[in-house]
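Exercise: predict the fold of this chain.
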Amino acid sequence: MITEGGGIPLAVGLTGGNVNDVTQLLPLVEAIPPVRGRRGRPRRRPDELYADRAYDSAQHRGELRGMGIDPQIAERGREHGSGLGAIRWVVERTIAWYHGMRRLRIRWERRADIHEAFLGLATCVICYRHVKTFC
C-alpha cells in the first residue's frame, strides 16, 4: 500500500491494466477503513465478501476465513444460479456509471492520486444525480 506522509492510503489496489484483479484481493480487504456507528470498537472487516469466479481459489478462501470473513465466491466449473447475480448486478451497474465518465473509461493519468481525485469527482456527480431524482 502506498501511503502519504500522514499515513493516508493513496493507491490501494491500483494496478496496471494487464494485472489480474485477484492479486489485489487481500490488500484491498486489509485497507478497509474502520466503520463508525454503534458504540464500541469500530468494525474493520465485513461479515461476507461477494466475488465472481475470477477470485475462486482455495488459498484466498482460507485467508478470508482466517480473517473472519465468509467468502461468497462463485465456484469455477459450476453452473450459474448460485444466487450471487442479484448482488453482483449492483456492482456491475455502478462500474457502468463510472465508465459513463469518459475520463475514467481509460486510465490516462500516470499518477495514482490524480486518478483517484477523478474517481472522487465522478462519485460526487453520480451521487448528485441520484439525490436530484428524490428532490
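Check your answer against the key: The helical segments are 25-30, 58-66, 85-99, 102-105, 112-134.
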